[in-house]
Amino acid sequence: MENAQEKTISQWNLDGSHSQADFAVRHMMISTVKGTFEKIRGTLTGEPTDLENAKVDIRIETGSVSTRDDKRDEHLKSQDFFYVEKYPEMKFVSKKIKKKGKEDFEITGDLTIRDVTKEVTLTGPLEGPIKDPYGFERFGVSTEGSIDRSQWGLKWNSALETGGVMVGDKVKISVNIEAVRKK
Asked: What is the rounded distance in angstroms from the CA atom of residue 15 to the CA atom of residue 177?
């Protein structure tokens, strides 16, 4: 007879209407353009109270990119950037989650854009868990980091007559998720 109890591993689904992935990049070396991906989904397997032993898997539809400019969005969807026809999603899969203070965490994982996978680290706080008015358990995580887009093959650019380039290589990213425990 076995005395040890099996530990149940919880599954949490991202609430797509309360989660988003945003980016900001320098434009013509004088301003910053911001955008968002409107379609994001994913799961967290584990417990928010024990996040260091959890696994995160996030999928972002590249065709849902929005910068509030249709012409620019179409260019971002082209072969010059995300090539959504061939690569309809990008993904982030955690490898290690480390507590950094009372609420902050460092999440290291593999980010795949197009057919290139590189390790990135995002940092930010965990909020919750809480019980919503409908009886569901929820928690939130707001993370930030930056990448060099050229490392993922996103190299399109145009030289400016006055020096510099049209689009900066450094891209600031932020991913804000709200997750609901799967019943």
From this structure: 7
